[in-house]
Design brief:
The chain is built from 1 helix and 5 strands, in the order αβββββ. With 80 residues, it is mostly beta strands. The termini are far apart.
Length: 80
């Protein structure tokens, strides 16, 4: 969990890739906490609006700012 959050902090401005339920997403901002669980890492455990909580090996990661882009998607998103 700490390594995931460190990666998001380091590359969040440029977005980093994550796999959620087998789908690649681009993550700009996330929060997380350690907690023992039996969930499969990468599985969505809660979703509300665009915020999504995903299980990781040693806790949970809340994806707070993320985007789903297909391989041929053209976007007009302004630079952050």
């Amino acid at each position: 969990m700490k390594q995931i959050l460190s990666t998001v902090r380091a590359f969040g401005r440029f977005e980093c890739l994550a796999t959620v339920n087998g789908v690649r997403v681009h993550v700009a901002r996330a929060a997380g906490w350690q907690e023992t669980h039996n969930m499969t890492p990468g599985a969505v455990v809660h979703a509300f609006a665009l915020s999504t909580v995903v299980a990781c090996h040693d806790g949970y990661i809340a994806l707070l700012d993320w985007h789903l882009f297909g391989p041929h998607t053209i976007t007009g998103t302004p630079e952050r």
